[in-house]
Structures are given as C-alpha cells and as structure tokens.
Amino acid sequence: MAINVTQEGHALGRAAAHGCQDHHAQEIPARLVRDPWPARKRARCLVHRRIRGPGEYTDYPDGSPIAAIKAGDDALKVLGSMVGAIHCVFIEEDRRRFANLQGRLDRESTNAKIRRYPILGTFVHGMTDVRKLAGNPFDSNAPTFAFLDPFGPEGLPFALVRELLALPGCEVLVNVDSDGIGRIYRAGGWANHRVLLNEAFGDSSWERELEGVAQLPVAIMKIVNLYKRKLRTLVPYAYTFEMRGRGGAFDYHLAFASQHHLGLEKMKEVMKQIDQTGAYCFSDANVNQHILFREDDLPTYADQTARHFAGQRVSWKETNDYALNETIFTNARKVLAFLEKVGRIDVTAPNYPQRKRFTFPDESHPGMYIHFTA
Question: What angle do CA 170, 177, 18 make, to 5 degrees?
Fold first, then answer.
C-alpha cells in the first residue's frame, strides 16, 4: 500500500503495504499517520507492507486494507487543510483474495483525497509496479517509513530492506519471523534452508551465528539480534521489539531502523502508547524476559551501559545513541543519572557550568564527556 500525504506541496506521508494476519499491529502505522513527527520539520513518508489480504475476515470485518484506509481517513481529519492526497497501493498475489479485496474496496466509502491502487502480484513484483506509479513513493527525495510484514520468513529479501534504507530519508519497521527462520534452519536441506536464509539475511552470516545451536528459543534470539546488527550496518539507529500477547506468550519480533534518532524515539513512544492499551506488552529482544517500558529495569540497563563503556571517556551523543539503540529508553538521561549516583561515572562539562549533578541536557551538549569507571 502506498500512502502519500502532502503538506504545502511536499510529501508528508507515504505507505506501501502488503499482508495482514494480526489487525492489532495495524495500530502502529495508524498512530504514526495521525502523528507525523513534527520535530523533524519536514515531510513524513510511510511505506508499509502489512496491507494484503481479502480486506475482510469472518471474525474481523475490517482487514488491514480497510483499516489502513480508515487510518488515512483519521489522518485527514486530524491534519485538516495541511493534507493533500493519500495514495494507497494494495499488493495481493492470490487471485481470489484480490477479487474479494477489489469488491471490498468498491464498497468502502472514503474521503475523496484517498486514492486507491490495488495490484495483483507478489510483493517484490508489486513494488516494481509501485515505482511506475505517478508520484513514485520511492523517489530518493521522499522521506519514507516502510512497514514490511511478510507471510512467514519467505518473500522479504534483505536486499529490498537494504535498497529502502539506502534512501536518505527512509525508515523501516520489519516483522522478523524469527520463529519461522529458526524452524527453517533446524529443518535443514529439505526446507531449502540455505537459499531461504541467504535471501532473508542478504548473505551467509547466519551460518556462523547459528552454528551448533540446537534449541529453538536460543536460535530465535540469535536470529533477531543478527538481523538488528545487519540493520545497524545500514543506518545508525535500530531496535528490536519482542511482542507478546496479553497472557505474556511470545508473538513475534519487530525490528525498526532509521537514519535519524527522532525516528526511533517516535517509534518507542508509539510502542509505549500501545503497550498501555493492554492489547500487547513489549519486551526488549536483547534482554531475556524484561517487559519493555518498566522503570524498574533501570538498574539492569544502567549496569549494561556501564559494562559496555567500562574504562572509556565518551561523548554525551555516544552514550545517548547507545541508550536509544540498546535500552528501553529514548535517551541516556535516566541511565547516566543512576550511574552518577552510584559512582560509576564522572562527568566533565566545561561548556555547561550551570549543570547540576545527576542532571543531563535534553539534547547533545558540546564538550560534555562521560568517564566510565573500569
């Protein structure tokens, strides 16, 4: 699905979507559409792959294609005259589902500014067709948010993720089917695992990562952490979320990657909002069994940070980036305040004489350095 929201002649939001099994996850891009990151001071683009399917289900009449259209309609109501057009491109490879989707779209009354383009074909081929549309959402000048959600571990080559993140203003949120990838790995040759995993990771790095791993839960954590590391080779900011149902059982992993720290900050804020609704709870995929957004995890993350930087003198920005990429927090202030109180860091800030102990600025401050004890 491609959403293009314009503001004063510039792209404000775009989305390309494909695939939906879990309608609750649609709330993530929907919230981002309604809250277009004003701190960025530029257009916000959305591209996501979740909108695929017949458009309705027997137990849930509004499938993700319809939910996305309604999210766009909500965005139009909230943003008002700032918004130009929203372009929605739906990619579906099954002919019967595609026919049902077309019928469902025809029955859906929407704002005249929402324009819909259903495409019959695979996601990869559909993305090629999207590029041929007027106002190509993958124009290199267009900020892009990509929500990529394949049905299973197949169909989402890492090469596509790399291509998207090569765009200067692109962010991606990927549903990483770590469980499915782990099962393919354990199945071995009869599941054509080498071809599929090379495609999923873009190379054979998974072989060394998973060598000798026999237990599926261990393989799952190694898979999602490898995926995050590969994202970090492409952009400076990446984080993985472990999504759990209300009963606390593991559901799936989401990996987010951005060129800009504000993108990851906004994503964590949205996840926290959804977490408070009770529909999901979130866990840091790097820390086993720690529920995300709990303040009592502070000592754990503070100790993790202190061990990572032990004996080093680092800038405020470096510690802030680490907190954003490796902890539940959107910045390093709470972690550093905790560490200063327990004597595990010293702070020098000659250009910031008004600073009080245990307090840190909202933004990067030139000349501030953190000295971690060995």
Answer: 55
Closest CA relative to residue 159, chosen from 168, 169, 151, 148: 148
Largest Cα separation within the chain, whole Å, is 68
308 and 345 housed in the same domain: yes
3-state helix, strand, coil in the chain (%, to 5): 45, 20, 35
Residue 173 has pLDDT above 60, yes or no: yes
Provide the domain count of the chain: 2
**145 and 46 within one domain:** yes
CATH number for position 24: 3.40.50
Q: What is the DSSP string of 207-264?
A: HHHHTT---HHHHHHHHHHHHHHHHHTT-SEEEEEEEE-TT--EEEEEEEEESSHHHH
Mean pLDDT (the chain) is 78
Q: Are residues 120 and 17 located together in one domain of the fold?
A: yes
Contact (CB, 8 A) for 177 and 252: yes
For 192-230, write each residue's pLDDT tens digit. Answer: 999 999 999 999 999 999 999 999 999 999 999 999 999
Only one residue has tokens 């990151």, namely 37
- Asked if 53 contacts 102 with a C-beta cutoff of 8 angstroms, the reply is no
Beta bridge partners of 252: 243
**Domain with 349 in it:** 295-372
Tens of pLDDT, residues 288-310: 555 666 666 899 999 999 999 99
**204 and 245 co-located in one domain:** yes
**pTM of the complete model:** 0.81
Mean per-residue pLDDT, 176-184 = 92
Strands 250-258 and 170-176: antiparallel
pLDDT tens track for 309-361: 999 999 999 999 999 999 989 999 999 999 999 999 999 988 787 888 998 87
Mark whether 148 and 234 lie in a shared domain: yes
My answer on whether 265 and 312 are in the same domain is: no
Is 278 found in the same domain as 317?
no
- Location of structure tokens 């873009």: 202
